[in-house]
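User: Hey, my collaborator sent me this sequence without any context and asked if I could get a structure. I don't really work with proteins. Can you help?
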Amino acid sequence: MTARTIVITGASDGIGASAARTLSRLGERVVVVGRSAEKTRSVAEEIGADYFTADFAELAQVRQLAAQLREKYPRIDVLANNAGGIMGRRELTVDGYEKTFQINHLAPFLLTLELMDVLTTSNATVINTSSAANGFGKLDVADLDGATSYSTNRAYGTAKLANILFTTELHNRYAAEGISTAAFHPGVVATNFAAESTSRMRHAYKTFLNRFMLTPDQGADTLVWLATSTPGQDWTSGAYYAKRALAKANKQAYDAGLAQELWERSAAMVGADLGELDPRL
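Assistant: No problem. I've predicted the 3D structure and written it out in structure-token form, which is a compact way to encode the shape of the chain:
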């Protein structure tokens, strides 16, 4: 069989790097995407994979990444939107959006839209790394940047909730065109994804408590399962998973109207050519 092409963002470390290694061992053609050129190159060279770098705090770099992927890969079988993390105090990106929301939601949303023609042609699977932290998120479409009320943990939870709503609406809009999609919670994994955060949660990743956390390989298990199993048979498109099973999410995650409203607002925020990229708007 011809190896499938699997693009993984946030693959320079943590569960993204672990998934890249596992999928490469399984014979897949993995494309490693990360922010750090040194770390991304190291993972790619280790497994003999192509790699690209992009900082999701700048949407122009996301568009450039999409253009590079479109040029090199006429077929993308799996897109794993895995990049993200907990940030610190409220900060706006160069694009003018709250950093946590942009990196965790707007950037993968834009990347997926920019690649949509390739993804639909490929009957691709889109996997979005969410978190159980979605449970303490509260999404207000009128205040996605947290200008009215902001806390580090709530901003992260809201972004992870947005990942699930994005998954739901992606299924609603594109399942008929061959797209399968799922969001998942990797578990509490001992990685450095909270390194830039001022959240009190960061301390758990730097103390003896991290010995009770999952390893990156364990955290990557559901991602690998979604990437290698059969949608519609092994899992349901548009749903949220944890430990390879359907999981319960924030009650807002089941609001179809909110999912549609978030999609439309997100598209406006990233300045997409709405008619060209998503004629459903």
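In plain terms: The chain has ten helices and eight strands. You can pass these tokens on to your collaborator as they are.
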